[in-house]
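Many introductory courses stop at the sequence. We go one step further.
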Amino acid sequence: MLKDKERLDDLQFNNLYIIQNPDLYCFTSDAVELCNFVKAGVKDRIVDLCSGSGVIGILAQAKTKAKYTYLVELQPEMADMSKRSIEYNKLENIEVVNMPLQNVHKHIGTGFEVVVCNPPYKIHDGGELSEKKEIAICKHEITVTLEEIVAEASKLLKFGGRFYTVNKEERLVDLFCYMRKYGIEPKVLKLRNGIKGANIILVEGKKGGKSGLVIHN
């Protein structure tokens, strides 16, 4: 089940484990917080964009008992780890889609109740790139931009569907502008205080929603 340099990490929920490779990108606490932020019902379907090793989609599926979950991941190595994690945990109603997220709605359909994404936080030239391409792709907008993510989320969601994402506070204005541009109204903003103040934001948006934002600190 495990390949060279891979390990099994305990997700500390329902005896679930996830396969990770420290030479690639390993999930952080931001991913877990985002998963806990997601709300979904047993009849809802979830799409996890930029799913990486699958931690958000796997935990969200387990915690919400959603009807079905798609994990959309570009990098073959990460997608393969997700597939083997699903197999290891004997999970059902969850599927990995190894392809670019741009226009993934043409492959898996539309009308979803929930879309979640832990995106690359930094623009392409926003700081030094990691020497490892796999890590650089996860941290910088190399293969996808924030605008492309929001645009695709809007296409995937049904009217009234919810979009959940996390980012650095420096991207908040960009995120809100893109959300309104593509018809997803920001409804909830949660701030996570860091050493220098609130530096991580969690956002819930509603497709076709009315204006009105609630802020939690």
